[in-house]
Amino acid sequence: QLQAFGGGLVQAGGSLRLSCAASERTFSTYAMGWFRQAPGKEREFVTAISWNGDSTFYQPSVKGRFTISRDNAKNTVYLQMNSLKPEDTAVYYCAGGPSTAGPYDYWGQGTQVTVSS
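^ thats the sequence. predicted structure below, dont judge the formating
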């Protein structure tokens, strides 16, 4: 089970850090990803990290602004979001699976991020 939290309302240019806590002890064997869904749009990939943190992948629009990391000792993955833009507004979901390329078998409930202009 995955639980995402840390969303909120922030002004453009601001920062937020999302966290996703896993209850499974097998968390450390999963690749983890963050996805987002804006109103009226399809869910899209944001970023992913390999099980050991050695590999990370980013959607081009967030590269250089967002950083994914994980702490396997705490069963937690993080998404540091800097220089936020109004177009980053969405519900953000964390997900876990066998590979950063998917499929993602486990999903959190989502946390709302709203960026005001």
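The longest strand covers residues 90-97.
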